[in-house]
Amino acid sequence: MKEFTHIDEKGRAKMVDVTDKGETKREAIAYGQIKLKDSTLERIKNGQIEKGAVLETARVAGIMGVKKTAELIPMCHPLLITGIDIKFEFENATTLGIYATVRTTGKTGVEMEAFTGVSIAALTVYDMCKAVDKDMVIKNIKLLKKTGGKSGTYVRENGE
Amino acid sequence: MKEFTHIDEKGRAKMVDVTDKGETKREAIAYGQIKLKDSTLERIKNGQIEKGAVLETARVAGIMGVKKTAELIPMCHPLLITGIDIKFEFENATTLGIYATVRTTGKTGVEMEAFTGVSIAALTVYDMCKAVDKDMVIKNIKLLKKTGGKSGTYVRENGE
Amino acid sequence: MKEFTHIDEKGRAKMVDVTDKGETKREAIAYGQIKLKDSTLERIKNGQIEKGAVLETARVAGIMGVKKTAELIPMCHPLLITGIDIKFEFENATTLGIYATVRTTGKTGVEMEAFTGVSIAALTVYDMCKAVDKDMVIKNIKLLKKTGGKSGTYVRENGE
Amino acid sequence: MKEFTHIDEKGRAKMVDVTDKGETKREAIAYGQIKLKDSTLERIKNGQIEKGAVLETARVAGIMGVKKTAELIPMCHPLLITGIDIKFEFENATTLGIYATVRTTGKTGVEMEAFTGVSIAALTVYDMCKAVDKDMVIKNIKLLKKTGGKSGTYVRENGE
Amino acid sequence: MKEFTHIDEKGRAKMVDVTDKGETKREAIAYGQIKLKDSTLERIKNGQIEKGAVLETARVAGIMGVKKTAELIPMCHPLLITGIDIKFEFENATTLGIYATVRTTGKTGVEMEAFTGVSIAALTVYDMCKAVDKDMVIKNIKLLKKTGGKSGTYVRENGE
Amino acid sequence: MKEFTHIDEKGRAKMVDVTDKGETKREAIAYGQIKLKDSTLERIKNGQIEKGAVLETARVAGIMGVKKTAELIPMCHPLLITGIDIKFEFENATTLGIYATVRTTGKTGVEMEAFTGVSIAALTVYDMCKAVDKDMVIKNIKLLKKTGGKSGTYVRENGE
């Protein structure tokens, strides 16, 4: 049976020792959604100016958030991130999709970094739009894919 | 029609000027869920030791995350947070609920702080358990309630 | 003769005690320039897409930098910034102007915050363009105006 | 024609992917000036006590600022800085020169780190002296030299 | 019987709610010692140049550390610190004393800020000298005095 | 005679250049104590709920503090920490011992990281308990062991 690697033998949290692991090339892609009123999404989508500001600000925030992961998540190892890409997709009239791809060469994976990128980008979209829409919901933040490392490749199967 | 307060007249992001707003007592409650395998939740829930570590670590991370909100969300105003409470609820065999209540006396509301608390707590639960469950999904992060300030009280109506 | 307020009687650095100062409404406007190759500025200026990215990223970085001032400048007092606005101006074929306006109600002024906003925005422009132009120069960072506080209003006179 | 490496094909900011670049030894030297009243510079220069405090505080701030570069500049890659040196030079009666030398072994260069070191050191000098001189100007922040990496050595030619 | 104010009714950590507390003027003085080899202290003490560097660097670090308290100590409330003073005393041939005085007007006290100032200054002295002395010991960090707030004045009685 | 490696030839602080040092596996163990009233320690120790909260919060804070070392101690090099473990020991009726073990593979040692972990954990215990005990003293923070690097293994001999 797999073990919780962040819990030591007495149930105390610790940062897993990865000193002896080798460095491998790693990538993780996380995804999430924000559900908004259609009028809010319309204003982001069609208003060329506003769109630039909302999504561009959220993208910058997400990228900077990725770099703060080890500072935010207690047991995360610091890593030298070598690539970050945050993308938005208008999925339907009320749903904005967010994708964060993170890459590194290191001893541990970057899924938490990708998750953090999606989360901070989503929170920033909420913040930019909350004056006109307080009902937004951040949904379905999940790992899409993960490569590199001893545990090998993970690809989420269809649906949730 | 309401305006995007973080976008100036030319569509450029700016931090809204609240210099002349009065200080009022404010509270916000945000909520979110993590969906896990029942075996993962069972290990968190029944294992007295592990539960302490996972949820306690997530609680501390969430509280510290609340205090970092203005550093993470570009247009957020810094605030002197005066109270933070993060609670977990085992909603069913595969769902963990997270509640963050944040209070301050200040010129702007604390909904982003409450959202950030829920998000960082959720990411920490993911991080603590990801060795045994990579399929977890963070869901339905939303504002439950907000009081104080000129815009008055917001209470989310039933359902989403 | 005026005294260096950050230096105590024995020449040691300290954070000036402002405990007994009253809170007043304060504003500071700082300014700076970046000198670039005309081809670089042209690419920022005319390329609608690139322009959005370079200046929008620099604006977000500048706003976030303002909020980090007390963390960067050792003797600066933490302040609850209530408004930040960063503007860019194409001054001539090779010069980009940057203006940062910062507001607060507090016990000390916000000129360092405005300076930090200009500096971080300028560094970000440099970073975004350095692949095509390593000769850029950041120039003439200075205080344009300062209001509020016991020392009263400061307005820079013409020229330097 | 060279491309803006931080802008992706649709004009969106991203952190350039350097995963596959090799690690090389790198150094960058940046430079800048502060123009002060001669009486201000005299007080820094001749007052043995004050000089220690102003320049030593600025040096420490500059070194700590270098280490914060990837947190301040959105698209900068985190790097394990292996050496930082900040030097001051009294260039003439009203001009203080600042040099920052930064070294690492890594996948990207350290010019932004050197620029940040000069900028934060300059801002700190301004902060330490602003009670006696609000007219100071930070000038001519530029890259003097850069070695290592695929793009090879850059040395600024005489003058600007 | 007094209660642990950071522990809620079920033993879970939370940030104590101080929303309804009034703001009062507050001060705290913390103290600590470093025990070094006499040759190490001699080098700090007599070497005019080195002394400047070691203690001045430690003082700047301590002041910056004070401002980071709420980021380091999970349940600490953020405060607008209004004054910080770090002093060193050569107590005897092998002992360096450190005093941190912190002031604010706020809803909670600043003893943790004063403690953090002493601790970070002490760690910095250790770091600056560890190449010549690995046996240093940081000792007797304690609260000397605390004024302001509902709990009134605390003054440590003689000795420990 | 050994030299202060953080002080350059003119007595100015600098970050030691380790660019050309090789990477070796490194470990450091630091230790410290808190002296509390026996009633305070009893409440931490026997109260199953409170114990979880106090020590678990302190452990998380200590681990996160380790990762902030290079941000807190001016001349410390950033390192990719690969393992952190914080342990508490009830030494006697009034003394809590704290051990921090830190590991990395890098160019410089991790003793400052271990010291920072002990210090932040101790400060957090103080913060959690200060409502019931203001007389606590943090004592005897020292290096127990250090391995790796050119200077070889250090083991503290018996006693102080």
TrEMBL record, chains A, B, C, D, E, F:
Its EC number is 4.6.1.17. InterPro entries: MoaC (IPR023045), MoaC_bact/euk (IPR047594), MoaC_sf (IPR036522), MoCo_biosynth_MoaA/MoaC (IPR050105), Mopterin_CF_biosynth-C_dom (IPR002820). Residues 15-149 form the Molybdopterin cofactor biosynthesis C (MoaC) domain. Keywords: Lyase, Molybdenum cofactor biosynthesis. Pfam families: MoaC. Signal peptide: none annotated. It catalyses: (8S)-3',8-cyclo-7,8-dihydroguanosine 5'-triphosphate = cyclic pyranopterin phosphate + diphosphate. It comes from the Bacteria. Substrate binds at M75, C76, H77, M112, E113. Pathway: Cofactor biosynthesis; molybdopterin biosynthesis. GO terms for molecular function: cyclic pyranopterin monophosphate synthase activity. CDD domains: MoaC_PE. The keyword Lyase applies. The active site is at D127. Catalyzes the conversion of (8S)-3',8-cyclo-7,8-dihydroguanosine 5'-triphosphate to cyclic pyranopterin monophosphate (cPMP). HAMAP family: MoaC_B. Belongs to the MoaC family. Homohexamer; trimer of dimers. This is Cyclic pyranopterin monophosphate synthase. It comes from Petrotoga miotherma DSM 10691. The lineage of its organism: Bacteria, Thermotogati, Thermotogota, Thermotogae, Petrotogales.
